[in-house]
Design goal:
Blueprint lengths: L1 E5 L5 H10 L3 E5 L3 H11 L2 E2 L3 H5 L4 E4 L4 H9 L4 H4 L5 E4 L5 H13 L3 E4 L2 E2 L1 H6 L3 E6 L2 H11 L3 E8 L3 H29 L4 H8 L7 H11 L9 H18 L4 H15 L16
Parallel strand pairs: 1-2, 1-4, 2-3, 4-5, 5-6, 8-9
Antiparallel strand pairs: 7-8
Helix pairs in contact: 9-11, 9-12, 9-13, 12-13
Length: about 290
């Protein structure tokens, strides 16, 4: 298919690469043009001067940017995707953003007979680089069915959650769960060390039981070694948790642990850990 990819950060760069590797005709846009040039040198395809130029002939347009304001700029701006995209095309936004911006874009896209899917991802930079992302999608079934085979290029699991906004809501659930799990793991490892136990032996034992988690399997060793210079940054996690907490204020959900862990992440930021991996919660305990 003719596709466009807007936003070539640590996630978008490899995701767009998988589209090219799978034979799609890819046009990319990035605010820092040199990154788009580097992508084209590595994968072929072509770069565009604006998001609108990238979207002009595309059947599916993907975006993966930073936050609500960035989504509004690249999709709704005067040079944005909606200004140029053809009717009957589909926009797939992989940004982790609010459900409200998803609904705003979805309504404006529908008015132009353009499909829209909010499709945040989980799996981090490693998942993007390995083509093993989990995608949570909100939107119309017909649009989902058109875009799913293309998303398969970089995903291991794609789930249609419900109408527009549902993908972002599901991503909020994902981040809420991760926050609690990482805090529990941090405290467990901290306790093990204080008790004089060998963390490796303890993890070998408990990871075979009910305490097992992805975080335990992939992060316990780096946590006990104080290695945090990789993965999903604390700054990004706090952005995501702020979105979830704001949504909870609207829908009435009680997020006591999430709010507490968010403040723990603020302490990690104060320690200089703004760009540390989210597993750095253990740093404030030692």
């Amino acid at each position: 298919m003719r596709v466009a990819f807007v936003g070539l950060g640590v996630m978008g760069f490899p995701m767009a690469g998988y589209l090219a590797r799978n034979g799609h005709d890819v046009t990319v846009y990035n605010r820092t043009a040199s990154k788009a040039d580097a992508w084209c040198q590595q994968y072929g395809g072509q770069s565009a001067a604006t998001p609108g130029d990238a979207a002009r002939d595309a059947e599916v347009v993907f975006s993966c940017v930073g936050n609500d304001d960035d989504v509004r700029e690249v999709l709704l701006g005067s040079d944005g995707v909606l200004a140029s995209i053809s009717s009957a095309s589909v926009i797939v936004d992989h940004t982790t953003a609010s459900a409200s911006i998803a609904r705003e874009v979805g309504a404006l896209a529908a008015a132009k007979s353009v499909g829209f899917l909010d499709a945040p991802v989980s799996g981090g930079q490693a998942g993007a680089e390995n083509g093993q992302l989990t995608v949570m999608v909100g939107g119309v079934t017909e649009d989902f069915e058109r875009a799913q085979p293309v998303m398969d290029c970089y995903a291991k699991a794609i789930t249609h959650i419900g109408p527009v906004g549902s993908g972002q809501m599901a991503k909020m659930v994902n981040q809420i769960c991760i926050a609690g799990v990482v805090q529990g793991l941090a405290e467990g490892l901290h306790f093990a060390k204080k008790a004089g136990l060998d963390p490796a032996i303890v993890i070998e034992s408990i990871s075979k039981g009910a305490a097992q988690s992805w975080q335990m399997e992939n992060r316990w060793q780096t946590m006990v070694n104080d290695e945090f210079d990789f993965g999903f940054a604390v700054d990004w996690m706090r952005k995501d948790l702020a979105i979830a907490i704001a949504e909870a204020d609207v829908n009435g959900a009680t997020l006591e642990l999430t709010k507490l862990v968010d403040q723990f992440y603020a302490e990690v930021q104060d320690l200089g850990g703004k760009r540390w991996d989210t597993s750095s919660l253990i740093a404030r305990l030692t």
